[in-house]
User: Which sequence fits this backbone?
C-alpha cells in the first residue's frame, strides 16, 4: 500500500503507445543495387593474406616474423640526443623540486619572523644565480639536439 491509496487518489490510466510500421519499399534500396553491381561496399570485409607465423620449424628463426627475429622490440637507435634528454629531464625535475623547497623555506621564514625580507633575499639570489644556470642548461640541450 502506498500513500496514493491511503489518500484516495485514483490510479492514472496507462497510455497506450501504438507502434507505427513503415511500409516496405517496392524498389530495392540503392545500397543493394550498388552491391550487385560493384560487390561488397565495405573495404574491410576481406582480409589481405598475411605471413604465416609458424610455417617452418619451431627451432631457429625461420618461423618467426621479422619483428620477432629482432627481439620483439622497436630497435630504433635514438642515439645521444635521447640520452641527453633523459639526463636533462632528471636535472629539470631536481631544479623544480629545489625551487619548491626554497619557496617553502621563504614562506616559513616569513611566518617565523613576520617580515618578508628573508623571503625576498632568497628570491633575488635565486633569480641572480640559479635561473641563469638553468637557462645555460637549456641552451646546451638545444645545441646538443641539433
Assistant:
Amino acid at each position: 500500500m502506498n500513500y496514493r491509496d491511503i489518500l484516495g487518489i485514483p490510479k492514472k490510466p496507462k497510455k497506450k503507445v501504438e507502434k507505427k510500421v513503415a511500409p516496405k519499399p517496392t524498389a530495392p534500396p540503392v545500397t543493394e543495387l550498388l552491391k550487385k553491381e560493384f560487390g561488397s561496399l565495405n573495404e574491410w570485409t576481406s582480409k589481405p593474406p598475411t605471413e604465416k607465423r609458424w610455417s617452418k620449424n619451431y627451432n631457429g628463426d625461420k618461423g618467426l616474423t621479422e619483428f620477432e627475429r629482432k627481439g620483439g622490440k622497436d630497435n630504433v637507435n635514438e642515439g645521444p640526443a635521447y640520452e641527453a634528454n633523459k639526463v636533462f629531464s632528471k636535472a629539470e625535475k631536481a631544479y623544480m623540486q629545489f625551487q619548491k623547497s626554497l619557496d617553502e623555506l621563504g614562506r616559513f621564514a616569513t611566518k617565523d619572523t613576520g617580515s618578508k625580507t628573508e623571503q625576498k633575499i632568497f628570491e633575488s639570489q635565486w633569480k641572480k644565480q640559479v635561473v641563469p644556470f638553468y637557462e645555460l642548461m637549456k641552451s646546451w640541450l638545444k645545441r646538443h639536439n641539433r
The mean pLDDT is 79. Residues 79-144 form one domain. Helices lie at 3-7, 30-38, 66-69, 79-113, 117-144.
